[in-house]
Amino acid sequence: MSQLKRTLRLGLITATVLAVSACGGTTRGSEENTNPAGNQATGQADPDAPLTEGLDVAFLPKQVNNPYFTVADGGGKSAVEEFKGNYKEVGPSEAGASSQVSYINTLSQQQTDVIVTSANDPNAICGALNSARQAGAKVVTFDSDTKPECRDVFVNQVTGEGIAENQVELIAEQIGGEGEIAILSATPNATNQNAWIELMREQLKKPEYSKIEIVAVAYGNDEDQKSFQETQGLLRSYPDLKGIVSPTTVGVAAAARYLSGSEYKGKVALTGLGTPNQMREFVKDGTVEAFALWNPADLGYLAAYAGAALASGQITGAQGEKLEAGKLGEYTIGEDGVIVLGPPAVFDQANIDQFDF
Amino acid sequence: MSTRPAVSTAPPALSRARSVHQLWLAREFGIVVALGLLVLVTTLDNPAFLSPQSLRDLLLGAAILVVLAVGQTVVIISRNIDLSVGAVLGLVAFATGKLLSSAPGTPTVVAVLAGIGLGAVCGVVNGVLVAAARVPALVITLGTLYAFRGIDHSWAQGRQINASDLPRSFLGLGTATVLGVPVLAVIAVVVMLVVGFYLRSYRSGRELYAIGSEPAAARLAGIPVGRRVFTSFVLCGALAGLAGVLYAARFGTVDATVGTGIELQVVAAAVVGGVAIFGGSGSVHGAALGALLLTTIGSSLAVLRINPFWQQAVVGGLILAAIGLDRLLAVRAANRLRGRSSHGG
Fold first, then answer.
1. Total-model pTM
2. Which of A101, B131, B270, B299 could form a disulfide with B226 if both were Cys (CB 3.0 to 4.6 A apart)?
3. Which domains does chain A have, with CATH numbers?
4. Which parts of the sequence are annotated with region: Disordered (chain A) (predicted)?
């Protein structure tokens, strides 16, 4: 599935598109200026309003048939069933920048109450989303945001701080609180990876982690073979290495596969961000003790509840408003209408079989 | 070693045969020297580079590329090229994963044979298009590269096959060793020896060289050019299929993007290994050494901890250096030969 990889690639494409349109932009610009709607709270929020029954909630993922979104939307579906709404999922088969526009227009014409979407491009679907909002729909983005003025709230899976804190905690536990560690990242230019690595270094400055040292950052380019070689290189170059952190799904799976068949199995700890299906084998054979990722089903679940709360008038998307999201409990809306799902879920031998994504 | 009939035992022919043999030796020798230098420098920096685990890793890392490079060599020798090998590898890797995850009882041997078969089918498509339509292989295989990858994408639908879906016995193929040597490496060496023997000792194998040297002359000489080229593509496809199975066994995680871009590494391995890109000369042993050199470069850069931003440039530089060294040795060998023949003549 390698969602991180996909997100990264998407980021690159977005950057390219932006660069191109910045150079020659003639047709695009007009569209961007026509919708200054903004996400200012319209009307008054009534925190005690009950959730309306029979809401039409549509999930529009980046791409249908993508396992990550299949699980996320599944979480949304169970939430919609809980508050007795009507769930449906539509979406393009390819994650192109503007591939979602026609789906949004159709949903808008069908008078859908809530559109929950993960944007393939922060700008391309803005116009369509704002017309849908003018037609009465509430728009929730999850996983990947649009520009803030094009949606009501954004359900963010995790913050960089949350990831850094979690990863450092996991590795510290696994190596017994001291020793040399290394990071196996994606590409040297991956923005989110570099930000996380920086935040991990910040975390390690805390006194309880003073005996842990990052000796190297290696880049597996999100390729199996390169990740194998870099893992081997780390183990060769640093004979005293105690642990490896790989915050990318491809890297952590490749490193686990290498370790499981090498003499380092059980001697060098490995953790990172991976999917349970990918890592199941290596958790069971003892190569990996625990790793983390946000739960996509919970992400979809929370997004559905946020949409229902918006449509029922419980919240408007303003900072500080609170909403009740079924089994997940209470959430508070942060700056720019962002709701954070929470710290990533940790998977280990005890719970890994409860997850299938 | 060679079944080529010695037409004449007269001294000139004999000495020419020997000198040709020496030249052949010299070509591979250049790569061996480059490889030795690389290993020496890396080991001086970090002695762990020559530990048993490290050597096993080097052989394992090269195995898949070696199998691909051997197949590619057969095609390049006949003055063609197969750019679709990466897509075939990806398609077969996914098919193997799918087969084994839906029918976990399938014996590994059956999975390997099925993979080779599917690869051969892809090779048939390439071969028919190239040999029958007489369109340059570069264009045809560029097209099938996307076509095969597209089939892979639409089949996979974004799904991924994970190590836990595959039977242990199959995954064992990727890590097992025989007397300390990884099974994957043994398979690669066997493939190299068999194909090398075929190219050197069989009439149809020699004819591939003739076709690559001068297709028109080969046709006039009565060589069934179309049929030979077709066969070379089927062989290359079958080996790409085998590589796909090995890939699934080694990495355990397979999605539709597996092997993207690997075709360029394969061509690079063959060229670094002394296979002439315009056909007619080169050996599978050279190509295999080229593949070993390329993967060793990757591994030693990781051990030497070269700045990751510079790694690709360093890889490119080392490839050029290896080719340069090979060229230098080849020129010196040729000069030496010329000197000797003037003495004798």
1. 0.76
2. B131
3. 43-157+296-341 (3.40.50.2300), 160-293 (3.40.50.2300)
4. 25-52
